[in-house]
Amino acid sequence: MAKQAVSIKDKTFDVPHSLYPNKKMPAVGLGTWQAEPGAVENAVYEALKVGYRHIYGNEREVGNGIKRFLNESGISRDEIWVTSKLWFQPDRVGFALQSSLNNLQLEYLDLYLMHWPQAMKPGNEWIPKDEHGIPQVDNTTTLDMTWHALEALLGTGKVRNIGISNFCKSEVEDLLKKAKHQPDAIQNEIHPYLQQKEFNKWCKERGMVVEAYSPFGNLNPTYKTKDEGRIIDQEVIKKAAEKYGRTPSQVILSWNIAHGNVVLPKSSKPERLRENLEVFALEAEDVAAIDKIDKHIRYSDISEELGKVFFKDEKPPHVIAEQSLENLIKKLKAKVGGNK
Fold first, then answer.
1. Catalytic pick from 45, 56, 213, 244?
2. pTM higher than 0.90, yes or no?
3. Binning pLDDT at 50, 70 and 90, where does residue 235 land?
4. Looking at the predicted structure, is the pLDDT value of residue 94 above 50?
5. Is 213 an annotated catalytic residue?
């Protein structure tokens, strides 16, 4: 007989540095990154219908789904936590924010994040490129310059909390030295194969809510995998699922929340939306057992795509040197090829 599982689907987290301390962040949110075009609006709408109160995204479809739900339910906008991200130069932060608000059809964001620790030159693509196909990174803009622009938004009423994403510890340390308002949250890739427990603890000690994107790790079909096997197929995950009469996916999400992290699973299927929301309290022994399968495998690393080495703290010197050289060679080949 399965052990009784105690639901924690309504769990929320305090945001220590928030200027709006009465509003807490729901532990389970809906991620919409890489969702199929045309499916996002209905996914957001269905998620809110079944009980989600935390939505991440900035596309108009996300806004359509939120608006549709609010109009039908009569629930207040203030009962929903909406997060979006920024990847622009400091002088375009206000423009980027207003663009996201227009798409979302909202008057304010609950959380606005720096997407990656790298500014980009203006462009219409996710990664703007020049005529040679070289990513247009902006190396004249420092992290604190963009952060100060985000801080200025707090006084407008259009943004209630600000944070960072895909930062490593040394980058966070540098930012904290110059920040006037400490980051309210940090969003990173976190799952049983990439647990980052010490870094996450360090961030929480500095008042940041830790959010986990890609909580299922290598289930994302766009990620490059080797022979490590899927997380949901790990024996320790399946044993816990059997013990509580739950699914492996619910175990994985519940494990992350047990470590005090917000989770942002992605799905557009109503049955999976309901399943992902049904998180529960894992016993300490089950959390500890899952902790043992950490493989320190990161799947979301755009160092190659952007031509810049990210996550330097966790890479040995020879890997950083190799990636830097590969990026330089790629840029030179692109320029030479474009000039033929």
1. 56
2. yes
3. very high
4. yes
5. no
